[in-house]
């Protein structure tokens, strides 16, 4: 029997190594796209991964959003060579009509060439350099809180803590994607990051991987699903169902009011967005299914974070200093939240389930690069090369600038926009996008327009 209970023939004495593989068409593959019956195809081989769903290191949403498809490009982009050794146990058949488009072939060739050219090597000394900047920030912050009575020194300490959180978050992002040592040590490094940021890596894994697999899908990408606070497209006015949160995103009167003024509240929300990360981390840590040891480590790390953070706040002389310190730290990290938003909010969106066949196109169209000098790459955490990061998510960030010249010609070959704009222009695009949706939200007499006729589409592709 296959893992989901379907019949599979065998030769000899039932040795699974001698199983008779089924001939499966793409139409048949599409039918197996839900929990309890989940198939995927990789390089023309069909795998029943129903039982693997709960154990998938990238989270369940990654498999569910791409179920019933050939996922070769996504698999190649995210998985190391060791993942291939797990596949044979799940194989049940051969995809009879497996095809590779020219753009897929070119993408896979570029991916292979980059790996052969050692772009994926991750020298640990680079992270030593990042740490050499981060650690002094944290130490100076603590010393300033303890030894100085000055209000403005404490505000400065809050800013330093915010900058430390930004860089620690980028390091956690790197470790989560590509690993530092590529051994079991990386697991504990993730936990260490959580001890000093208060952001759980289990939440990050679930949310961030889903975002990568479904970049700018209105129903599947959690990084553009911010109802009732923001709506980047009038599509959200129809109270869409989120396949990430497994609930309807209600566009009620409260949401309409908030969205109507979102272009005014944007930076205020970004300055306080860290509160949402804390809340999401705690929700996942206490409610999501995970093994006992993982939950224990996660909660221990969060307990450590809240212990030292609370202690530092208590050492400040009065509540005015405490509020100023926390707001300064949160507002500083708001710069990072703005960075996240700039990379996607003003880019084109799409409806429905992500399609692996158009992996390359979706990542390019749904992302925006920020033009900047090489010396600012550390400040942006490499996310100024968002298009390149989405195409090669496990590529170490210090090599993203180096691969950009290889990606641009490939985009040009297939008439895809490799867009890179200044930080200022990216902010203006986001504000135009939010304002366009806000104006439509205010018109209560009009139903939600189709995407092709929406002002948001014009805003997403605005120039100048």
Automatic annotation (TrEMBL):
PROSITE patterns assigned to the protein according to its UniProt record, in alphabetical order:
CYTOCHROME_B5_2
* Residue ranges occupied by any Cytochrome b5 heme-binding domain in the UniProt entry: 21-96
- UniProt-listed GO biological process terms: lipid metabolic process
Q: Name one GO molecular function term.
A: oxidoreductase activity, acting on paired donors, with oxidation of a pair of donors resulting in the reduction of molecular oxygen to two molecules of water
> Hey, which pathway is this one from?
Lipid metabolism
Domain of life assignment: Eukaryota
What keywords is this UniProt entry annotated with? Heme, Iron, Lipid metabolism, Membrane, Metal-binding, Oxidoreductase, Transmembrane, Transmembrane helix
Q: Which GO terms describe its cellular component?
A: membrane
The record's section on SUPFAM superfamilies has: Cytochrome b5-like heme/steroid binding domain (SSF55856)
Q: Which CDD domains match?
A: Delta6-FADS-like (cd03506)
Question: Entry's InterPro entries?
Answer: Cyt_B5-like_heme/steroid-bd, Cyt_B5-like_heme/steroid_sf, FA_desaturase_dom, Fatty_acid_desaturase
TM regions (residue ranges): 124-145, 151-168, 188-204, 224-244, 264-287, 299-316, 323-342
Q: Where would you say this protein principally sits, based on its record?
A: membrane
As for membrane topology, the entry says: Multi-pass membrane protein
Q: What subcellular locations does the record give? A: Membrane
Q: Known PANTHER family for this protein?
A: DELTA 8-(E)-SPHINGOLIPID DESATURASE (PTHR19353:SF30), FATTY ACID DESATURASE 2 (PTHR19353)
User: Can you tell me which family this protein belongs to?
Assistant: Belongs to the fatty acid desaturase type 1 family.
Name-wise, this protein is: Cytochrome b5 heme-binding domain-containing protein
Q: From what organism does this protein derive?
A: Riccia fluitans
